Write the structure tokens for this entry.
Amino acid sequence: MMQKLIPILCLALAACSEKLAEVAVAPELPQGVRPDFMERIDSTTLKEAIDRAGQNVQVEAGEHALDIPCDGVSENEFAKVTFKVDPQVLTVLTFKSCGVSFQTIFPE
């Protein structure tokens, strides 16, 4: 039984690892935002990347959603942004007041 389970587990782990992607969040705050700007970005899937801004973090490949504060407009406004993360590239997110810019870096 155990001899059959180990190869199946290895295959399952290999399949899961193919669905991971690298994401980095630029650590700079947008000009004119509140100091707690990064803490108020709402994302269940990119929380670790936001918390570890400046470092590459592995996240699940596919679609992600963010609610980004619009400090330049109103403290209670948020921009809803959705985007896809490709497992073949490093995606770098640079937050703007009320938005985000995306840069993809292809591995050498």
Observations:
- The CA atoms of residues 15 and 42 lie 29 Å apart.
